[in-house]
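Ticket 4471: requesting a sanity check on a complex prediction with 2-acetamido-2-deoxy-beta-D-glucopyranose. Repro inputs:
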Amino acid sequence: MVLLLQLLLCYLTSGTVVSASPNHTHYSYHELWMLQNYFWQNFLYPTNRGHIRANDSSIFAADVQGRVHATRTFDGRELNNEYIFGLFSQPDHPGIFGPPIAYNITQFAATDNIAAATTLLSFNITTFQLVIPAAIDTWFQYDSSGRIIQYDAVFRWLDYLFVPLMQAAGKLFHLEDSAAIQTKVASLLADAICQTHQDHCHGANQQYASKEDCLVFLTRRVRFGQPYEMGQNTLLCREVHDNMVQFNPSVHCPHIGPNGGGYCVDDRTYQQVVLEKYFQRSWVPYGYADHNPWVAGGTP
Ligand SMILES: *[C@@H]1O[C@H](CO)[C@@H](O)[C@H](O)[C@H]1NC(C)=O
Ligand SMILES: *[C@@H]1O[C@H](CO)[C@@H](O)[C@H](O)[C@H]1NC(C)=O
Ligand SMILES: *[C@@H]1O[C@H](CO)[C@@H](O)[C@H](O)[C@H]1NC(C)=O
Ligand SMILES: CC(=O)N[C@H]1CO[C@H](CO)[C@@H](O)[C@@H]1O
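Returned structure tokens:
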């Protein structure tokens, strides 16, 4: 119902909890549809910039758990505000990410406090002068206040997306050979990441002895990476984390460093990824699938 969002918005603007805020975890299809739209409206640029702060409690529950398939899992509100809203909010920062400028939901099923959707987003990949659609499959689960308590997100056709992305880069650099394009993109990304390191990773947060060391490591000592390896020991993984460093250097500097800070590391097999018992809550409501292999335990 519209009331739910009005209350949520009222809560946001007033900064205090509205006592009449919904207090239930069984939502109607319409309420879940409104919550889904509320998320995407806030994901669009530049609205997303307003949610990067650690203390923004308008979208995620404090103990939210999230998984983004090509990367990793993200625990807690602060980290999720930084990743989900910070990654796609910097049109002037060189890289493969850019701001989402429009969305349309193309598939939507919802029950209880769970919504599964496919959403077409239009991204403006400013570095490569490319405006391109991406399809994101999401599962959202909400707590009693309409905040996301857990989510699971998949960029559909992510590998394929790299084809037009690299073509756009080739056009910009006047290159046709795919290996040459990748080398050029690698050097562009490495330069951006190493500049971030220079600007934000000082003292105990420093990862590389010099910018030159950083460039050598990122272009020669670590692989570029496949699109599905954004959570492994790759340049692409460090490219993801590059966008978060400025928001919290002590947390994110290690992720762009040589040892990957636990995020950009090769520590898991395919089987471990696919079978990981990560979520505290089941994605199957009403007590079905009581031995759901993705549930870690805790609340069934
Ligand atoms: C919401 O429900 C919980 C129990 O599920 C209860 O403890 C709490 O007092 C309720 N809050 C309001 C504002 O009604
Ligand atoms: C959130 O943190 C910012 C500083 O990062 C501060 O200015 C603001 O007052 C805080 N807001 C709340 C609601 O605590
Ligand atoms: C994409 O971003 C560029 C640079 O900020 C801007 O000039 C252009 O208008 C944007 N394109 C769209 C479709 O918003
Ligand atoms: C068919 C449909 O839902 N179109 C919408 C796609 O998104 C744009 C901008 O977000 C809307 O203006 C369209 O109405």
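Notes from triage: Residues 175-267 form one domain. Leaving this open until the requester confirms.
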